Structure formats: structure tokens, C-alpha cells
């Protein structure tokens, strides 16, 4: 069982690495160990960020970045500069439902009603992050600039974020207040209220009904159920993370089950795969029926088909 | 050992007779991660879930070794044509 769970751990790391190219598997492993502790909406780099104009006089923002490591790869800057990006006003409509804001990954800047930059953030789902900011600090959300990063690996996202920060500091002479060390206005989401469901009382307890029946009851008695890797407060796989972000963004009341929980959901992965006839996780059920995995949910989300699915 | 792009392509070709197929190896060489885009008449009248199931079933053997399969598109030739046209008009605009 040990090797087995290791397989799944490494699995999720591979899954999160889909967007990276030309990395050896070893590199991507250690890379994702870092990345999995990199929470959504939380630009951890906002602390300790020191602009050094005297050391580095050339303007970085528009130049392609060339890594100096032996296995160098060229990362062209994926976003327009801050100055070139048009601001989108935040209103109750697009603050709460994605509206015209992009749901992709990238960098975004929040301006208050006076046009002062308040915060520059990094997100796997810009629309969802902005919606969360709108909920917590509407008075600071006047307008938004968003720069989508097409190949959203950690490096290009960080690079995009850095270039916007540098540009902002250059133009305004200061770090956006929300990015100052110790400012928790933007980066800390309120803890999610719901806990993950547990399928069994524990591994040591002999089940009196087959696990399959428990799954069946669970998905039929709850409107929306998501089987994910890791807890919902911090999914351990990029695909699960995306699914949770979409569900949160839709404002759906859903239940989640962590398929990696070996104590309370022992044996769930294999049983669920057979039950649903679906080979991978995450899996999303609505009204007892499998909707699909991350690809399907994402595509339905983009087509705007989810609202009607959850309403029925 | 991992699976090659060619193996994935030949299985999909044999079982789904696609009119367009794109397989990208995103594993960085170990053969465990692929992105698939597929156009086939066999998707006609099938829901997205069933289409994905068909792809998963076609790759049943390969899936044992693939860690991550992202099915980006499963469309019918008709839908593909429409998408291509709307892409072109978007690009032209």
C-alpha cells in the first residue's frame, strides 16, 4: 500500500506539470514540491520583494527572460506590460459572476475608485480571485487590469507578476499597499467553512456495507459531490484545485471527499474508479450522476453550462 | 517504460477513426502525460462524458502507464468545421 500511495502522489505532481515543457521528470518533481505549497491567490513573493535599480538598471519588463541554468530555456514574457493593459471596471455584476473577466491564469492589478493601484496578484483563476476580493474589500476594488499567461507554469507566472510589480514601482515609486509585507487585506482568504466528508469511520473499523454502497448513497443524497485529491482547503493536484476554484466561483453548495485520505477513505480510489467507470480524479457528481473530470467541468464552465446544471 | 505519442495516436486512430487528431506529449520525455485533441464522426449524438469515456476506453492499455491524460477536445467533424470557421473569423476581425 505504501508504494501505491506514492504512485498517486507522484501522479498528482505529474498532472500539475502539464504546462511545463522540456523539464526532466526529476526536475519537475522537485519543482512541483515547491509549487504544491504555493496557494492560489497568494503571491508568496510579495514579501521580501526589493527593487534594486542600481544593481539592475536595464528595464526588465519587456525583454525575454533567459535562464542561466545549464538546462536553459527561454521564457518570453507572456503578458503585456501594465501600461499597455486596459483597465476593466469592477461592478457588482462582474465582481460576483465572472462577467467579462478572464477565468484563466495570470497576473492582475486592482485599482481603487481613485485609480490608485492597491494590489498586484497572481492567480490560477483571475475572475475567481477578483470575485473573492470584491466580496471581502469592495471599497478597494474600483477597476482591474488582467494579463493572461498562456502557459501558466510557475516560472512564467512569477515572471509576469514581477514585471508588473517592477513597472508599478517604477511608475509610482512605491510598492502597492496590498503587497507590502504584513498586509493581509488581499492574500488571506477566509477559511472555507465546510470540511471534507469522510466515507468511513476509520481504517480500523470493519465496514458492514460495501464501500460501493456508501459511495452510491453519498452521491445520491447530495446534490453536488466532488472527489478530489487533497483537502478542499488546499487541493494537492492542479486539476482538483481548478475544479474547486470553479465550484467556489459558481457559489455552489457542494460536498468534497479527499480520495488521498488513507485513514477515512481507505480503498476509495479503486472502488470509485469502478463505480463511476472513470479512470482519473477529480470526479464531479451532480444528482448522483458523474459529470466528468476537470476537462469536462472546465469546458462546461467556459461555455456557461454549469449554472443550469447546478440549478436543475 | 512510458508510452510514446505514436502508440497513443495509433490506438486512437484504430478505434475512433478520427478525421483530425492531435496528440502532444507533455511529459517532457517520460511518456506519462499527454494532451489529446480529437475529431471523429463517432462522437455524433454523444454527450461530452460519453465522448471522454470513448477516448479513455480506446486508450485502456496505455492508461495503465499514462499518469495524466488531458482531453482537450472531443468534437464531431461538423463542430470542428464550425470552430475552425469561427476561429478564422475571429482572427480576421
From TrEMBL, chain A:
Keywords: 2Fe-2S, Iron, Iron-sulfur, Metal-binding, Redox-active center. One of its GO terms (molecular function) is metal ion binding. GO terms for cellular component: mitochondrial matrix. InterPro entries: GIY-YIG_AtGrxS16, Glutaredoxin, GRX_PICOT-like, Monothiol_GRX-rel, Thioredoxin-like_sf. Transmembrane segments: none annotated. The keyword Lyase does not apply. PROSITE patterns: GLUTAREDOXIN_2 (PS51354). Residues 224-291 form the Glutaredoxin domain. The keyword Metal-binding applies. It holds the Pfam family Glutaredoxin. SUPFAM superfamilies: Thioredoxin-like. Belongs to the glutaredoxin family. CGFS subfamily. PANTHER family: BIFUNCTIONAL MONOTHIOL GLUTAREDOXIN-S16, CHLOROPLASTIC, GLUTAREDOXIN FAMILY MEMBER. This is Glutaredoxin domain-containing protein.
UniProtKB/TrEMBL annotation, chain B:
Pfam families: BolA (PF01722). One of its GO terms (biological process) is protein maturation. GO terms for molecular function: 2 iron, 2 sulfur cluster binding. Gene3D superfamilies: BolA-like. GO terms for cellular component: cytosol; nucleus. Belongs to the BolA/IbaG family. PANTHER family: BOLA-LIKE PROTEIN 2, BOLA-LIKE PROTEIN-RELATED. This is Protein BOLA2. It comes from Psophocarpus tetragonolobus (Winged bean).
